[in-house]
Amino acid sequence: MKKNIIEEELIKILLSEPTTDNIRQLLNADVLNKDEEKLCNEIFKNYSLIGNYQIKRMLQQLEYESGYLDSIEPKNKDNQSIAVGNLIINRRKKQNEEMYKLALNSSTYDEFNENSIDVINRRYKSVIQINEDTILRDLEDYYDLNSNEKGLSFQIDKLDELTNGIPTGVTTVIGNNREYRHVYAINLTYNMITKGKNVLYISLNYNKKLTLLDLISRHSYNTEKFNKNLSRVELATAQDENTYKTVYYDLIDDLTSHLVVFDESNFNVQNVFAIQRIIAYASKQFQKATDSSIDLIIVDGIEKLHIDTSRKVVTNRNIVESEYYSFFNDSSYPVIITNESLEYYADKINEGNHIQLCYLSDVTKYYSKVILSIRGNSASDKAKEMKLSLLKNPNDNLIDEQLITADKNYSYIKYETNDSDDAANSEVKYGRLEQGCNKLKEENRKLEQQVEDLNKSSMNMNKPVDIPLEMLEL
């Protein structure tokens, strides 16, 4: 009898005549060896024609003795789904242990080894060492003695107030318009690196050059330093070389010291171990530049990811998301993931509505500690506002909708909130309110001077002065 071709636990499941959903789940999980996958595919393709007897015949063709097969007790049909789930979990745990040993023994990328081991140790801490005793700290947390400690800022005051900052683990920014998700990610990155925080930015919707240009465009909106803003178009066409150089050299230290950007042109993201290598590399770069590690990871466009194993490419969205979300959730970093809703709900979501939780995958809802929905305030590309909704929050406080000023041509978000419709005049929208106020002050000063001069004249002439009508109206 052949041994270890097909595990006995799987044989028990197959002999119980599993449903097509259970067989599909086994095939999509990528935990079967070639013989097991071939057998399950055969059963799936001919499901209506195959029963327990035919499955035994197929196993006998793999040289399993009939006496051995007769001695196996099939799984109870009522518990098939549980048995399939447990098999997948156990197989994945075994795969992870094997990959961990392989990573430790690998000498292909010597420059990454030290940092890679640190990353892997964090992921598989329960496997390789005794867990830290945290009972005393947990008792301290129980009475909320550290309630004043906050995570990194969302850069939106209302969000920070309700969530206590960006938590360690996964925060999902959802929205079917990738540009508005990207604008938020760029603004968050910009505010982090200019405050000395280290950001690893994995860009899957835009290449590295465009991502860096968007950060430069955002920096040009610093009205304390620059008189002119550089739009994406101006940067791409190099219309104003002098302004570009001024803005670029003012930001270059932050870009080189506190930011690492990866796109798939220089590193193909195939699985979680590729992500681990990216994290290890970024951590090493930050240690050299700042003597500290990663403060925030941003994954812009996780819907673009897939899983590429040595045998096949997995593109099923639930499986792919489950793999990456699980990894980031287990990491020790705050992670911002931008994502879109499930494809088959796209027709039900128009530009005027926020994405609701029911339009998100179970994986996204389960692994995300915080979920934000972001959309444009209108279907027009010229929209100067974004609307934000807080869909999930560990503190249970939610936001139905909040208006924030934004301009995606400049990758710019102004974080002051405008709750009333009449508060958002054009000067506020374009970040020019201060300039407008200064201009009005100067005009008022001139008019006051005119009034003062006229009053002096009237005193000299001993007669009243007629003040111009436009002055009275002011």
How do you describe this structure in short?
Helices cover 49% and strands 13% of the residues. With 474 residues, it is of the alpha/beta class.
Your description of this structure?
- It is built from 20 helices and 11 strands.
- The strands form 2 sheets. Strands 3-2-4-7-1-8-9-10-11 form a 9-stranded mixed β-sheet, sandwiched between helices. It has a two-stranded antiparallel ribbon with strand order 5-6.
- With 474 residues, the protein is an alpha/beta fold.
- Helix 2 runs antiparallel to helix 3 (34-45) and helix 12 packs across helix 14.
- Mean pLDDT is 74; it is low at 106-112, 124-133, 139-148, 417-433 and 461-474.
- The longest helix has 29 residues, at 433-461.
- It folds into 3 domains: 8-105; 149-425, P-loop containing nucleotide triphosphate hydrolases (Rossmann fold, 3-Layer(aba) Sandwich), CATH 3.40.50; 433-473.
- Strand 9 (385-392) and strand 10 (399-407) form a beta hairpin.
- It is elongated, with a radius of gyration of 30 Å.
What characteristics describe this protein?
Rossmann fold, 3 domains, alpha/beta, nine-stranded mixed beta sheet, single chain, 474 residues
